[in-house]
Amino acid sequence: MAFYKIRDVEVLTGIKAHTLRIWEQRYGMLIPERTETKIRTYTDEELVYLLNIRILMDHGMKISRLAEFSRDEIRAKVAEVKLNTPAGSAQEKLIVSLVEMDEGLFHATLNEIIESTSLEDAFRQCLIPFFDRIGVMWLTGSINPAQEHFISNLVRQKIVSEVDKLTVPADRENPVMLYLPEHEWHEIGLLFYHYLLRSQGVYSLYLGQSLPYESVVLSIEKVQPRCVVSSWLTAVEEGFIHGYFSQLRRQFPELLIIAGGAQLGIHHASISTLVTPLQHAEDLINLIKSPHLQSSQAQ
């Protein structure tokens, strides 16, 4: 069982710490345990309870009324509305699906957002903030690897499914080549870029996780991509990432090399002349469709 400090609960639920203290005093809704230093701590069950409270409040119910319900009644109320709740409550529902490992709730929530907008909007407005919250939960020890793998695989499956629905572009010359470098396994962001390119009619070739450097070189030589895109999230030493891109640049001096991820920001000073950084999805589309790149490919 995980334990959350009040600030963690504030981040995960969007309910202010001051409000939680008021509810505790006024309604007796929560009786958190306290550490030896008097810091409030909350359990998984209490986190889900508060997320459910947030869902119902977003649905128009008053806290004074909700305080009268038992936790079972709260769950029952959420069950009545959670599949039809507006997207504003999507974050809370996704957190519940993570904590309770509820695949049905995850799919229902994400499908509703995608159907009302698009996968692109769902990723930007919902999934990116959701993974930020998961990051907080990792830092606080609030979730275990099984829960994180569970939800990550569901997101991965969804993006792959949406890619499969798209028509493969007819023009397959000079594709955009996407891959993760060796020892890198965090592929969701890169998969989303693959989807985004395909949705824009750009032929992209996704080579997957942990691709050895030698295989990267062979692939570039074989498919002649217009550019390569990689993602670097796992911690690496500055010497390694500088050496990696220096070698790639020496072997392919005219190739546009694009990379994103936290390590690009950490080691920016060392690799700024070797690689084009990628921070937002719009950056990728603008780079791919830039007149300079188009003209260089035509030569």
Description:
By secondary structure, the chain is an alpha/beta fold. It has two domains: 3-164, Multidrug-efflux Transporter Regulator, Chain: A, Domain 2, CATH 1.10.1660; 168-298, Cobalamin-binding domain (Rossmann fold, 3-Layer(aba) Sandwich), CATH 3.40.50.280. 59% of the residues lie in helices and 10% in strands. The protein has 16 helices and eight strands. Helix 3 (44-58) packs across helix 5 and helix 6 packs antiparallel against helix 7 (103-116). It starts with a strand and ends with a helix.
Determine the CATH topology of the largest domain. Answer: Multidrug-efflux Transporter Regulator, Chain: A, Domain 2
Question: Beta-sheet strand percentage?
Answer: 5-15%
Distance between the termini: 61 Å
Strand order across the biggest sheet? Answer: 5-4-6-7-8
Question: What value does the Rg take, in angstroms?
Answer: 23 Å
**Structure classification:** alpha/beta
> What is the second-level CATH architecture of the largest domain?
Orthogonal Bundle
Number of domains: 2
For this structure, what is the CATH class of the largest domain?
Mainly Alpha
Low-pLDDT parts are 295-299
Helix content percent band = 55-70%
H-E order = EHHEEHHHHHHHEHEHEHEHHEHH
Number of helices: 16
- What's the number of extended β-strand segments? 8
Shape: elongated
Q: How does the major sheet shape up?
A: 5 strands, parallel
**Mean pLDDT reading:** 84
